[in-house]
Amino acid sequence: MKDSFKKTRKIIIRSPKQGSTPPGRGLIGQAVLALVIFLLLVSAYSLLTGLSGKKEQISLSELASEISLGQISDIVITGDNLDVTFADGSTKISKKEANTALTTTLKNYAVTPEALAKVEIEVKNDQGAMYWFASLAPIILPIIFIIFFLWFLSRQVKGAGMQAFSFGQSKARLTNPNDKNSRVTFKDVAGAREAKEELREIVDFLKNPKKFLDIGARIPKGILLMGAPGTGKTLLARAVAGEAGVAFFSISGSEFVEMFVGVGASRVRDLFNLAKAAAPAIIFVDEIDAVGRVRGTGVGGGNDEREQTLNQILVELDGFEPNEKVIVMAATNRPDVLDPALLRPGRFDRRVTLDMPDRRDREEILKIHSRKKPFAEDVNLPLIAERTPGFSGADLYSLMNEAAILAAREDRTTVAQFDLIRSIEKVMLGPERRSHILSSKEKELTAFHEAGHALVASVLPYADPVHKITIISRGRALGYVFKLPLEENKLQSKKEFLDDIAVALGGYVVEKMIYNDITTGPSNDLQVSTALARDMVTKYGMSEKMGPIALESPAGKPLFGVGVGDKDYSEQVGAQIDAEVSQIMNDAMKKAEKIIKDHRKVLNAIAERLVEVETIEQKEFEEILVKHNIKLKKKKDIEHQK
Ligand code: ADP
Ligand code: MG
Ligand code: ZN
What we know:
Layout: H1 2-6, H2 16-20, H3 23-51, H4 60-68, E1 72-78, E2 81-86, E3 91-95, H5 102-108, H6 113-117, E4 120-124, H7 129-156, H8 158-165, E5 173-175, H9 193-207, H10 209-214, E6 222-227, H11 233-244, E7 247-252, H12 253-256, H13 263-277, E8 281-286, H14 289-292, H15 304-319, E9 326-332, E10 350-354, H16 359-369, H17 381-386, H18 393-409, H19 417-429, H20 440-459, E11 466-470, E12 480-483, H21 494-515, H22 523-538, H23 571-598, H24 600-613, E13 615-617, H25 618-627, H26 635-641
Parallel strand pairs: 1-4, 6-9, 6-10, 7-8, 8-9
Antiparallel strand pairs: 1-2, 2-3, 5-7, 11-12, 11-13
Bound molecules: adenosine-5'-diphosphate, magnesium ion (MG) and zinc ion.
Magnesium ion binds near residues 234 and 331.
């Protein structure tokens, strides 16, 4: 195993450091550093050249007269420089005329040979290192400085420069199976029982390939993980590698695609070669839809690079020898846009679907992510799991994290149930915006609007019961009504949809009835409910007039393959759809209007209370309902009605 890892040194493992300094700041920092070094060099230079200047200088004529007076004991000549030592031991410097002997000069100054004889004259070799340095420094130092500066600049662009050399190499990150810290196993993945069951076979093969190969079994080369974002696809792929203890090369589909055509394909080749050298190994291509979309539709001019990359992946998959012990895993949340060639037998023919977690799974996921978090005694994870339908694993992870942050910010050492409850809303809708001050008129209007939703939801039998109403704005919503189904159901019925649409219109109806005017507030309500009504007609066959017909695929209009704007129904049918949708919307509005007229007193009570306290929890809300003779929903009722 160790051996095979040595061969993988070519991989660029991207350290967080590389990308973390913003280029702008780096450049300024480098320039400042270069400047400082430049100043240092300059001062060092002037210090060196100035060294000789420190001593007092005397002129030649002065020197001559001092010699005549017998004040000089010796003179050292270095080139044209004279170091003069006086009889009293002090030293001065002087300069002689170039190309003339000192003695000749002195004679010209009328120094007698006798006086000169008393002076010890020593001629030193000109070629001293110091001399060379002093004479070359003015030329060399600027050159050094320029080289230095260029070096700094080049360091700046080195990241990019290096990339140019390693373009064709894969950028895959390698997870070493022997690294205990980053190792993920099936224990870290909650729920997803079927998926784990499927993948256990792959783990077995990677652990013990001989057993399978000896008996002539053909192990799938490609496994496609499909599921909504945050359902744990990436996590599960890492867990497979962790369970099997093999090398794990991971790369994101978008990393194949660079500015230059051909890079992606060469990266694919490189990646597969690395993995084969490290076999047994897993190659994991995350978000494969970035390269694996249907080819050649011509939408947006096509993308040669993407197609070449995809072709290369197909070639590599086909080129596998059965005994190569490399398994390719890929993840996508858009299996519907993948090129059919990828899904052919012998390629990604094994497909594993990850569902959104149900209540039990959510509880397990919460447990996994609460591992290192100290809990207060009142924490009740089953309750949190119950209150978070529609949360993905990633949402639950961030819920736990938010709760811990809340507790830490309030200087508590344990996470309390209250923290978890608050985090549910935060993850769902973004942080509270207490700073968003509503004017008193806005506040009243928002209160009535939300009360309208809540009231309609409480009266209609198939709508989900209200858990909380608030007019504290969160994210982009001014206020909201928090509804939860009594139980989790995968199937929704036509009656539920119709009631949901009426609830969504509750706010709109109230604004129209009470204020005789409509604000921009309900625009989102209208969008959501109209979309729902349209789906009822075109996808679920829930319209009497249109009958049992699906006019659009469940994933919406297919963008690739069919082409933008193509409809698979006629204009006439389109008009019929529009008529049906507006019929549904109008019926729902009438239903909401009737409820609000009939229960005007309750509406006022809820709205007034909301203006007063801003948030009404389930218990208080139910008390208001009971006081006004509205029957509460119970689990039994719902089951009975179905
Ligand atoms: P995906 O790749 O499907 O978008 P990820 O695997 O990146 O989702 O999941 C994001 C995070 O959510 C994971 O790192 C993990 O912390 C958490 N998570 C998701 N699903 C699960 C699960 N089934 N069990 C435990 N944690 C999960
Ligand atoms: Mg992922
Ligand atoms: Zn609304």
